[in-house]
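Problem statement: downstream parser choked on a complex file, so we are re-checking the raw output for the copper (II) ion run. The parser issue turned out to be on our end (a line-ending mismatch), but while we're here, posting the original submission so the record is complete.
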Amino acid sequence: MRKVIGVLLAIALVTGVALVANRPGPAGAQGGGTIEATVTYAGAPVVEKLKVNKDTEKCGTEATIEKVVVSANKGLANAVVSVPGAKGGAPKAVKTTVDQHGCKFVPHVSAMMPGEMDLKNSDDILHNIHTYSTANPSINKAQPKFKKVMAEKFEKPEMIKLTCDVHSWMLGWVAVMPNPFFGVTGADGTAKIENVPPGKYTVEAWHETLGKQTKEVEVKAGQATKVAIEMKK
Ligand SMILES: [Cu+2]
């Protein structure tokens, strides 16, 4: 009996050690590197304006649809930068949230790993989320003003287009990514991806109207690697 217990204890110990060893470590603990991406576009910004005659107290009288947002230094906002070939890493701790605010999707582009996200309605009016996708089922759901948050699930990696059937100009994107190594460029066109395991990768930048560009990069342990990606028309 004592022998059996001894064997069981040994198994438990080995299993325990294996579990701990397989768990992703805290930031930098396993010698990951950082990718500092700058996405640029040499072309002009594209902004569409539309007269609004519905829910104007919340939506205003003119809708601004920012198709291509470019800074003075040619930095391209709202581009999703990712490392499709990277393995491992822990899912992001913060749940992705998209708010419907001022009859706009805020942020215009967001990114998440497969799972659940929150769709907020802070407008106090009726919105109707309508998504366009191929790998994930389409969502077409009213969100009355009293329904402040709706949780929605996207299980498969792909770029999902968000629209609203009440306000035709509302447009947004949710990028569902296969791993946690992604970022969305800010107003200056930069995005930082941390804790990438060392190795050679193809970094991808995606933009809703400018498409996709890639760049080869080598990530080294404990170092920041800069990558510049230029989007073309
Ligand atoms: Cu709406």
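For whoever reads this later: The helical segments are 2-22, 56-59.
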